[in-house]
Design goal:
It is a single chain. This protein is α/β, with parallel strands linked by helices. It has one domain: TIM Barrel. 38% of the residues lie in helices and 15% in strands. The strands form two sheets. It has an eight-stranded parallel β-barrel with strand order 3-4-5-6-7-8-9-10, surrounded by six helices. Strands 1-2 form a two-stranded antiparallel ribbon. A hairpin with a 6-residue loop joins strand 1 and strand 2. Helix 3 packs across helix 4, helix 5 crosses helix 6 and helix 8 packs antiparallel against helix 11. The longest helix has 18 residues. The protein is globular and about 50 Å long. The relative contact order is 0.13. The mean pLDDT is 93.
Length: 342
C-alpha cells in the first residue's frame, strides 16, 4: 500500500481508506448504504489492515452514532495500528444546539464521538459542512482548543466552497491556530467540478484531498449499463444516492471507456475508476466503502498499479464536461492561468 503526506502536515495516510457509512445501517438513507453489524465489521477491518489500509472514515451522523460505535468495537485493542477520521456539523437531534460548528456543539460532539469510538483521541476531525451561522473564528478557535487538549490530532473540512476554505485558512494563519490540512470532497470521473476551483486552491495552499463517493454512489461500479434498467439493489434505487443528476450521455460515455480499459488492463471497472483518481493532483486518499468482503477485496485492487498516461487521457476526454463561468473564461487564457490538470 502506498502512503502519502496529508496536505501540509507530517501525517502519512494510505492512498485507499475505508468508509464505514455501511456500519449500522439505521434509517432509510443509511440503510440503503448497507447494514454491517459488529462481527462483519471486525472482519472488514481485519482485511483492511492486512492490505495496509489503516485509515477508517466515519461520522457522528452516520446511523446517529452507531457507525462510530461499531467501528470502535471492530478496532478493539488495535487503536495504535489505525487512523480514525470522524466528522461533526450536521444535525444529530431536535435540540437547536445539536447542529452546526459552534463551540458549544463541537466540544460536545467531540466528547460524544470519543465515547462511541472508545478512544482518547481522534486523528482527523472533519467539519462535515460549512456553518454560515457561526463565526469562522469561533469554529477554528474551538478546533484549535481540541488539538491543544490532545483530543484531536489534525483538523479537516468537507464540502466547503473555495471561499469557505480560503477564509478559514487565512484566519488560522492570522491567529496561529491549527489549520485545515485536508478537504474531504466529492470527486469522480462523472463529477469533476472539484478541479475548477478547489483543486487549484488545494495546490496553492497545500491542502490534501480525501475523496468521498469516488464511484459516484455506485454509478461507476460496473452495474450501470447503457440501455439497461438501473439495478434494483443499488444505493440510488434504495434512496441512498448522493450527488447531482448525471446526464446519460456523460455517464455511459465514461462507462464505455472504463469497460474498454478494464479489458485492456485486466482490472475491473471500479478499480480503473479509482486508479484514475489516485493519479490526480492533491489527492492524498480515496475513501471506498464495501457491503461485504467481495466488494472490499475488489476495491483494494485499485492500488499498486497505474494506468498509462494514454489511458488516463482517454478517461479525461470521456469525462470532460462544459465549464461554468468564470472557469470557461479563465480557460481561454491558460498562458496566465493554467489549469491544475491538462
Amino acid at each position: 500500500m502506498e502512503y502519502r503526506l496529508l496536505g501540509g502536515s507530517g501525517l502519512k495516510v494510505p492512498v485507499l481508506s475505508f468508509g464505514t457509512g455501511t456500519f449500522g445501517g439505521q434509517g432509510d438513507f443509511f440503510g440503503a448504504w448497507g447494514n454491517t453489524g459488529a462481527a462483519e465489521a471486525a472482519r472488514l477491518v481485519d482485511l483492511c489492515l492486512e492490505a495496509g489500509v489503516t485509515l477508517f472514515d466515519t461520522a457522528d451522523v452516520y446511523s446517529k452514532g452507531l457507525s462510530e460505535e461499531i467501528l470502535g468495537k471492530a478496532i478493539g485493542s488495535r487503536r495504535d495500528k489505525v487512523l480514525i477520521s470522524t466528522k461533526a456539523t450536521f444535525k444529530m437531534s431536535d435540540d437547536p444546539n445539536d447542529i452546526g460548528s459552534s463551540r458549544f456543539h463541537l466540544l460536545r460532539s467531540c466528547e460524544a464521538s470519543l465515547r462511541r469510538l472508545n478512544t482518547d483521541y481522534i486523528d482527523i476531525y472533519t467539519m462535515h459542512g460549512f456553518d454560515a451561522q457561526t463565526p469562522v473564528e469561533e469554529t477554528l478557535r474551538a478546533l484549535d482548543q481540541l488539538v491543544q487538549s490532545g483530543k484531536v490530532r489534525y483538523i479537516a473540512c468537507s464540502n466547503f466552497s473555495g471561499w469557505h476554505l480560503m477564509k478559514s485558512l487565512a484566519i488560522s494563519e492570522k491567529y496561529g491556530w491549527s489549520r485545515y490540512v485536508a478537504h474531504q470532497a466529492y470527486y469522480s470521473l462523472v463529477g469533476r467540478e472539484y478541479e475548477w476551483e478547489l483543486m487549484p486552491l488545494a495546490l496553492d495552499q497545500n491542502v490534501g484531498t480525501i475523496v468521498w463517493s469516488p464511484l459516484a454512489a455506485g454509478r461507476l461500479s460496473g452495474k450501470f449499463r447503457r440501455n439497461q434498467p438501473i439495478p434494483q439493489d443499488s444505493r440510488i434505487t434504495k434512496g441512498g444516492g448522493e450527488g447531482r443528476l448525471i446526464p446519460d450521455e456523460l455517464l455511459y460515455g465514461v462507462v464505455d471507456t472504463l469497460d474498454a480499459l478494464a479489458e485492456e488492463t485486466g482490472r475491473t471497472v471500479p478499480q480503473v475508476a479509482l486508479n484514475w483518481l489516485l493519479q490526480r493532483p492533491t489527492v492524498s486518499s480515496v475513501i471506498f466503502g464495501a457491503r461485504n468482503e467481495d466488494q472490499l477485496k475488489q476495491n483494494l485492487g485499485a492500488a499498486g498499479w497505474n494506468l498509462t498516461p494514454e489511458q488516463v487521457a482517454r478517461l479525461d476526454a470521456a469525462s470532460e464536461t462544459e465549464f461554468m463561468y468564470p472557469y470557461w473564461h479563465q480557460r481561454g487564457f491558460t498562458e496566465r492561468n493554467p489549469p491544475p490538470v491538462a
